[in-house]
Amino acid sequence: MRSTVEPVEPTKLKLNIVVEPDELKPAIDRTARRLASEVKVPGFRKGKVPRQVIEARIGRDVLVAEAIEREAVPEFYARAVEEHGVEPLSRAQIEPPSYEDGGPLEFSATVEVKPELDLPPYRGVQVERPELEVTDEMVDQRVDLIRERFAQLEVIGRPLAAGDYAQIDLRASRHVTEIPELTRTDFLYEVGSGRIVPELDKELEGTRRGDILRFTVRLPEGLAGEELTGQDVTFQVLVKEAKAKVLPKLDDDFAQEASEFDTLEELRAAERERLEQAASEQIAAELETRVLAAYLESVEVPLPATLVRDELSYRAKRFAQQLAMMGTTLDQYLEATGSTADQVEADLRAQSERAVKAQLVLEAVAVAESMEVTAEEVDAEVRRRAQQAGRSPEEIRKALGRGDGSVIRGDILRTKALAFLVEHAEVGAPEGAGAAASMASTAAGEAGVSNTEAPDG
Fold this sequence. Notes:
The protein contains 14 helices and twelve strands. The chain is an alpha+beta fold. The strands form three sheets. Strands 6, 7, 8, 9, 10 and 11 form a six-stranded antiparallel β-sheet that branches.
């Protein structure tokens, strides 16, 4: 067999393969034996049909064509791929083979591959250092969250206001039929939370123990069965008790009750340290993002369609899962964000293209720096992922689809390459306070402050 490789596009190669007659003969013989076991010929037992009878029955041209398509082409294509070290990303596009009986078999296979990149200098990428200051207000916010967890409800004599709690009997009905999903006894309800219908909060404000409310609303989607959506529903409410949240006093006694610390100052110092750790991690992550983004702007990368398609499929599935976890449909998301399905798809595609570009560039940096991954590093990463997912390492390896750890090796190599870019970047003075405030909000959220994430896209 002789084979050559020629580039067709930056992300495609053509393998030209020539198979001599003596190399093709075994494939024809194997095909004849296989057909002998499949073709039924009167007077012969299955599998015992002579070769000449097979050729006479189906024709030599058909036999050879079958051998070329199912035996020779796959075999010699695989040998050519291995010989030239080609790593196909997609199934080969085989051009119609050229063959005359007794002569060589010739065919070409075009495959998609990762492009070879001409990397510009990647040492000294210039970026501004992110800034994030942990303020007293952020520490106060953390301590207040702890106070909320230790708050108590006390009975009040004044009228209910937003933020108070009403212990109520709630009955919902459509005409004379009670709606079980919305009927509750001794229900502790936070006024202003909007957990049922907005009208309930409005009606409860200003009421006291013993008050009875009755009002009718048009039921929004998602509260009861679909048949009740948009229907008029009557609510009857008995206010059985009015309560207010009382926060514990901020002193050393609170610190001892709420934590392992003896004083309030020790508690505040610990929360500040936790916020500073979260801020440090956020700054490191943001610096990685900035360095990679800055370098990617300097690199031209032809994107293999197969990799972009696979990444887009992954991101679309993850987006759908995020919507499902939020209890939101795509139509509801589009309405809430004022976007269209085409815009969401375009955004997901742009994300996918950026991700593939980053992957290819980091892999090229890893190759340029002769980076390697040890078996110990792969095992450690498998154990880390297993621990995160609450599964066994064997399950993680199986889920990745290849037992040799090639997927994880790639992830580790790209992580090393990104760390290399950051380590050798030229990082300038921090930005202004505006960026710091934005990052502070993110770090506070990661440290435990409640925040809401929208789905990617």
